[in-house]
Amino acid sequence: MADFHWTAFRGETRIAEGSPVEVVTAIKPGGPESVLVFDDATGNPVDLDLRGTLEDCLDRLPKSDADSVEPVERRPGRPKLGVVPREVTLLPRHWEWLGQQPGGASVALRKLVEAARAASSSGDDRRRAQEAADRFMRALGGDHPGYEDAARALYAGQENRFKELTEIWPKDVRDHARYLARAAFGAGSAEEK
Within 13 A of 65's CA, how many CA atoms are on the CB side? Predict the structure, then answer.
């Protein structure tokens, strides 16, 4: 899990954005009434428990990878690489080819998987951005004129049409939907802000 970036709305007005700590610190004094918080990586609403003190709320927040890393005791021998053994079923000719590769079957399979991940990463980024923007748009833009056509333009990669259809939406909703959709149109990762 990567570091979180959240955006909070009260109605159709963006009231806070940033790390979970920054967002909760900003919204806690005003209370949770009609506040929706979204995870920018997924577009999903975040279910927050804002009962108690600010410190109580902050203690209940999810931890980023940096917060959850535990020190590892170093011992002699091969380091643990997080390898997970699983069964792989292949045809005999596949096993024969893998066995002839430098480093053996495991190394060859890891290299093949990494190459496939690299080859599909831009498509995966585009799909994730489309889904995140669509989830957010359904939650806050679904009742606005042109929503369905804007969603179609998003999935069709029609950036100009998407911008045209969202132009009349409330500014903060429109701007955030466009921000989340950037990678869907090849304009960078939705995690950059």
Answer: 3
